[in-house]
Amino acid sequence: MVGRSLLAPSLLPYEIANIGLKKLRRGQMDAAAATAAVAMYEEADVRLMPVDTGAVFALAAATGLSAYDASYLWLARELNADLLTLDNALAAAAGTRSIARPA
Which pTM value belongs to this model? Predict the structure, then answer.
């Protein structure tokens, strides 16, 4: 994508690691595959951004999202950027700002 950048709240690495752990613990991936998947994130060109914790809290309270999900929505709004998500609740809260709605 020419002229586009991937930006995410600074919590993204922890969420990636947590997803890998969940897949491993549920038996959906073996240790080698989960480790490799998490390592792939390290190669991705994602710029991590700080968020305003108070504003994220208020947005989560207003939308019913988790604070984690609200941090992505807050950042998209703050940067006037599109939000790429496969999460139904987050896509709904983002409205027209969401560019990837689950089927």
Answer: 0.84
